[in-house]
Structures are given as C-alpha cells and as structure tokens.
C-alpha cells in the first residue's frame, strides 16, 4: 500500500535550520511529484513546496520562498525539505503528500512531523 | 496566493444535506478545473475526498459531491452521518505552468447535530 513517512521534526530556535525527510513506499516514486503542506496549531492547511518527479522543477509558497529548499533523491525514494532562517510562524505539523500532475491534487498523505520554533 | 474563503462552520442533523462553499479568484478556482477537497479528523492527516471539481476517488461514498460555478466551488454532503463530522478543506491549483501554486481554503468545521 502507498505510504509516506515524515521525520526530522524538532524544537529549533528562531533563526535556526532544520531538515525534514519524507520516504515513500508502495508506489513508483519517480511517477509522482511530492509536496510539503503544513498546518500551524489550530489553523488550516498551507501549501509549502513541490518537487516534480525528476527533481528538476521546484516551486514554493510565498511565505517560505528564499528560506526553504526542497529536493529529492529518487535512488532512496526520499524528498527533503531544508528549512533555514526559521521563524516562530513556521511552527506547524509538516505533511508530505503525493501529488498527481494530471489533476493537481494530493492523493496520499503522511502522518506529519512537528516543527516547533521557539527560544 | 491568498487563501480561499470557506465558512468557518456548518452543521446539520443526521440524514440531512449540507453544502460548503469555497471562493477563490479567476487565477485559481475560476481558472482551472483543479479543485480538490480534503476531510480532516482531529489529530489525523487529511483524507482525499474530491478531485477535478466533482470526481470521487475510489472508496469515497457517493454522498459526497462537488461542483463549481465561476470562482466558487462547493462540496455537498448528503445523508449526513455522525462519522462525517470533521474539518473540510478545499484546494485549488493556480498560477501558470511556469509559476504554479496550490492554495487551500481556511477550512470548515462540520458538526453533525
């Protein structure tokens, strides 16, 4: 069955850095883009970034552009989100989700990993 | 990339129907047929419910249906059941091929009375 498993969430100080990982299984990883979507405590969902199936194209939400970098290693079925210059407002559960390019939606989601930015 | 507008809450009794609206702009909801809906229960990951405005993934009951008119999409849930109580989020693809974005609504809490 399709599975996405996130890891790397932690408590980090403002201005710090953190890298999240998402490992996919149960499907052909190179057939899909992978997105990161976050959810601040008690708030709604916010799209963060996407990397296309081949890793060449990457796009970011306005609130993280220039601070976050998404990448993928198809030999390990893994996508990473490098987060720099972290702010309190980046505190959230970060989900990775499988993206379907033909319909521009997210058909499978991981369980999420919590990032807390606090001094 | 402003968030789509959804009502904060809706409610209905078992067996009734409810509709949740989702309003965007001509660059996202109105510009493409790429509107999807997600159900989220407390402490859980979102679940994929509707795609391409009105299509249901395998396993989603036909009590759930979607539609769109102009810049507003809607999710209708008929024959309400207690298990439908959750938050619902719409999402739309927007922008262009070279500068795409995905934008969610603020979420709607469905209460089954």
Quickly describe the structure.
Chain A is mostly beta strands. Chain A has strands at 3-7, 11-12, 18-25, 33-39, 45-51, 58-60, 68-73, 78-83, 92-100, 105-109, 113-117.
Write the layout of secondary structure elements.
The complex is a heterodimer of chains A (119) and B (113).
Chain A: E1 3-7, E2 11-12, E3 18-25, E4 33-39, E5 45-51, E6 58-60, E7 68-73, E8 78-83, E9 92-100, E10 105-109, E11 113-117
Chain B: E1 9-12, E2 18-23, E3 35-40, E4 47-50, E5 64-69, E6 72-77, E7 86-95, E8 100-104, E9 108-112
Parallel strand pairs in B: 1-9
Antiparallel strand pairs in B: 2-6, 3-4, 3-7, 5-6, 7-8, 7-9
Question: How would you characterize this protein structure?
Answer:
- The complex is a heterodimer of chains A (119) and B (113).
- With 119 residues, chain A is mostly beta strands.
- In chain A, the strands form two sheets. In chain A, strands 2, 4, 5, 6, 9, 10 and 11 form a seven-stranded mixed sheet that branches. In chain A, strands 1-3-8-7 form a four-stranded antiparallel sheet, with no helix packed on it.
- Chain A has strands at residues 3-7, 11-12, 18-25, 33-39, 45-51, 58-60, 68-73, 78-83, 92-100, 105-109, 113-117.
- Chain A is globular, with a radius of gyration of 13 Å.
- Helix content of chain B is 0%, strand content 46%.
- Chain B is built from no helices and nine strands.
- In chain B, the strands form two sheets. In chain B, strands 1, 3, 4, 7, 8 and 9 form a six-stranded mixed sheet that branches. Chain B has a three-stranded antiparallel sheet with strand order 2-6-5, with no helix packed on it.
- Chain B is elongated and about 45 Å long.
- The mean pLDDT of chain B is 96.
- Classes of the chains: A mainly beta (119), B mainly beta (113).
- Chain A binds chain B through residues 35, 37, 44-47, 50, 59, 61-62, 95, 97, 100, 103-112, and chain B through 1, 3, 32, 34, 36, 38, 40, 45-48, 51-52, 57, 89, 91, 93, 99-107.
